[in-house]
Design brief:
The protein is mainly beta. It folds into six domains: 69 residues, Immunoglobulin-like; 67 residues, Immunoglobulin-like (Sandwich), CATH 2.60.40; 66 residues, Immunoglobulin-like, CATH 2.60.40.1120; 65 residues, Carboxypeptidase-like, regulatory domain (Immunoglobulin-like, Sandwich); 79 residues, Immunoglobulin-like (Sandwich); 275 residues, Alpha-Beta Complex (paralog of FGE (formylglycine-generating enzyme)), CATH 3.90.1580. A four-stranded mixed β-sheet has the order 3-4-1-7.
Amino acid sequence: MIDVLQQPDMHQPQPPMQPPPGQPLSRNDELPVIAVKPDHGDGRKRKRYFIIFVSVLLLSAIYLLMTISVVIKVEPKPDTLDMSGFPPPLHLWGTRLAMPGSYSVSATLPGYKPLQEEIEIKRGGVANLSYVLEELPGLVSINTTPNATAHVFVDSNEVTLNKQGKAEISRGTHQLRIETERYQVFETEIEVKGYGENQLLEVALEPAWALVAITSDPVSADVRVDGKHAGKTPLEVEILQGRHEIVLEKEGFKPLSLVQSVTAGEDVTIDTVKLSPVDGQLTVNSSPEGASVMLDDKYLGVTPLTLNVDANLQQTLRFSKAGYTSKEQSVILQPGEEQSIDVKLVPGYSTVFLNIRPDGATLMLDGKKADSSTGRLRLTTRPHTLVVIKPGYVTQRITVTPQQGVSQNVNVTLQQAGQKTATKKQSATAASIATVTGQRLQLIKPGSTLSMGASRREAGRRANESQRQVKLKRPFYFSHNEVTNRDFRQFRSSHDSGNTDRSALNGDTQPVVNISWDDAARFTNWLSKQQGLPEAYTEQSGKMVAVMPMNTGYRLPTEAEWAWVARKQGQKTEQRYPWLGRFPPAVKSGNYADERIADTLADTVPGYDDGFRGTAPVASFPAWPKGFYDLGGNVAEWMHDYYAIYPGEANQLVTDPSGPVTGEHRVVRGSSWRHGNITELRLSYRDYSSKPRYDLGFRVARYAE
């Protein structure tokens, strides 16, 4: 730095000299000029100021070199915008200069949430910060009349009221729902202004209950509504709209449950509820054991059995057992009374008419010689073994199961010893038989061929219906009806077929459904065991497997047997439909998918009404073919066979087929109450399943010999 000193100007007038000391100044004398020596203190001061100025400039330059330019953009433009920290940032023309470090950015604007952000400024370049202010929600105060604790939902999302009891809702149009206990749901559309603005919504709530008056006989019964105690009868209670379970309880009487539908504002008076005394307990024994017990056509189980019986009411129990005469016994019990009864069953009898050829043969009945000269036998209603013997002839052995009140004809034609029997052998079997459950089976003697499957030209044909030729040589029995719930419950008393499509499926005379193939096979084994026949199936690892070769025990029909009975039995030509004529079905020809169930099924028969939404009692429609019911409609049926797709074998003849030896699914034949198109209603329609269905049941069959 260079110091510059000031020098006096020699060209300027000089001040007058002062008089000598002690010489006074005269009036005319001019004042003396005093020479002033320059003050070097002011120079030093100016020098100091200059140094400070330059230092400041230097420091400022250094500061500018060390700071970061920070540009802050906020949308919408706030009323206040601040950036704070240490060292304090410098604000210059919309830009802030800040040293590296931590700072706080804040901004405010009415109607928006305050902005408060912590930032970190680092060296290098320019820091551009952008923020968008968040709108404040609208504040909606909800006043309900009457005042009630409400759950508020905005666009299906529940919102929580703040401390001031206001719902914070974003600006715009919203669907508002208010739910309160005991009041109907309130729904409306609201327009929220937002930006923190307060709005008021007045809501008048409508009651969601009605008064329900309940009386009982006897009175003072405790009333519970959906499990909560409501009081004692006679009672008038507010019950919310909807379906509710109302239970009446009183000591010494059976609880009674009823379902009541309540509509808000519509008071209800329930007819006086009559309570029944508590049941008595009845222990039932029979001699012999194992008798089936029925009450008003309801199967209760087999003896020995313990039952709960309505008190103060005379009831009649019916006992039955294969081979014994049914017996009835009436009982009446006091409330809470325990009673025991013992029933002795006596053997039942039926007449069997014999036609034995040639004459002179010896008849053995259950191992003892019997007199056949009269041509008839009076036998107990249980399985019996008949053996017909004549020298020079082949001995014939027959099993006969008489049915009480039903006579049977047995024809026996002995063959000469050594005679070739391929074409002349005749069956010594009854034309019809009955199971222990009362099912009737008819003897079928096919003796000719059947074309299974369908022609490619047949309307509705499926790819798994390839044609093949089969011949059934072995006579078999085929049941007239599908197995009913009553039949099956004699084997398994706990079975419940359930209900579907607002239709009950569990009636005694309705076909049993929701049965697995294995359980159907177990039922047929049980039938065989009851009548002393060999079991057609054996159980392996929980699965039922056919005994090979197939014996004379009860079983499920083979697919070929079913097709024979359905399409050819008693007919000149093979039938296409389970009714006479073409598609659609004839009026009241079977239980198919009709207009009654069009609300739940896609395929129904137009204009058809069979009178049932679900299954019908078996044999409700005409037999087709003659003597056999429901081969079309009601329920589809399990077959004996494993399912397979057969190649086209129209020219290859197969005798007495019973299907593959292994497989995953079983064949299902016949249409059901859920079928309504031409594909499913044809007798050639083939289906399969491995699981129970509520439209799938079964019937029984067995070989005659």
